[in-house]
Design a protein that fits this description.
Blueprint (H helix, E strand, L loop, with lengths): L1 H24 L3 H13 L9 E6 L2 E8 L2 H12 L6 E8 L4
Parallel strand pairs: 2-3
Antiparallel strand pairs: 1-2
Length: 98
């Protein structure tokens, strides 16, 4: 009986970190999209740009135009910090590009 109890406790102890990690990463694409849009809109370097944000399985694609290269790079940095983001596909272009 005691060896069986120890085995069950050991199994539960080893499985818990995996279960917790799965719950933490389970953020919906809609929630990610909303969070990314809010953060980009509130940043002085990115704000005011016409951006299209789409998310599929945690991969965020940002399209549109920004005023500066700094804003383009910062959009990626901001997006990577959002919970649930797996990768960022930054397709932003500068208004000065033709």
């Amino acid at each position: 009986m005691l060896p069986r109890l120890i085995a069950v406790l050991l199994l539960v102890t080893l499985a818990m970190p995996m279960l917790v990690a799965q719950q933490k990463s389970a953020v919906s694409d809609d929630a990610i999209s909303d969070n990314v849009r809010q953060r980009l809109a509130s940043d002085a370097d990115v704000r005011g740009a016409a951006l299209d944000v789409t998310v599929k399985e945690g991969v965020v694609t940002i399209k549109g135009r920004v005023h500066t290269e700094k804003g383009r790079k910062k959009a990626t940095e901001i997006t990577k910090k959002v919970k649930g983001v797996v990768n960022v596909d930054n397709q932003l272009k500068l208004y000065s590009d033709k």
